[in-house]
Amino acid sequence: MPRSVNHVASRARRKKVLKLAKGYFGRRKNVWTVAKNAVERGLAYAYKGRKQKKRNFRALWIQRINAGARIHGLSYSAFIGKLSSKGIELNRKVLADLAMNHPEAFKAIVDQVK
């Protein structure tokens, strides 16, 4: 009995990968083996980048809160410690936004904590 290879499915699989490789330079966009490797690596970097984005934003928020707190004579760690002891539950994203865009509101929070 002849061997069945299912060209329809394998062609569709290759088309899917080559579509993801659209915009790549040189052979990475149209040669199957090169494109497959490039797309796999790109998807791995994308997965890793989604995790790193969260870390980077948290670090940015901490820097902004620290800068805002130091203007009012507090370090970041002292400010966060006093916030939690007073029971003020604002996350770092909101605090960083207040420190950057609404300094008077951030000053009110700092005065409440002191």
From TrEMBL:
UniProt record, GO biological process: ribosomal large subunit assembly; translation
GO cellular component terms given for this protein: ribonucleoprotein complex; ribosome
A GO molecular-function descriptor: structural constituent of ribosome
Pfam families associated with the record: Ribosomal_L20
InterPro entries linked to this entry: Ribosomal_bL20, RIBOSOMAL_L20_CS, Ribosomal_protein_bL20_C
Signal peptide (UniProt feature, chain positions): none
Protein name from the UniProt record: Large ribosomal subunit protein bL20
Organism of origin: Dyadobacter flavalbus
Source species taxonomy: Bacteria, Pseudomonadati, Bacteroidota, Cytophagia, Cytophagales
Encoding gene, per UniProt annotation: rplT
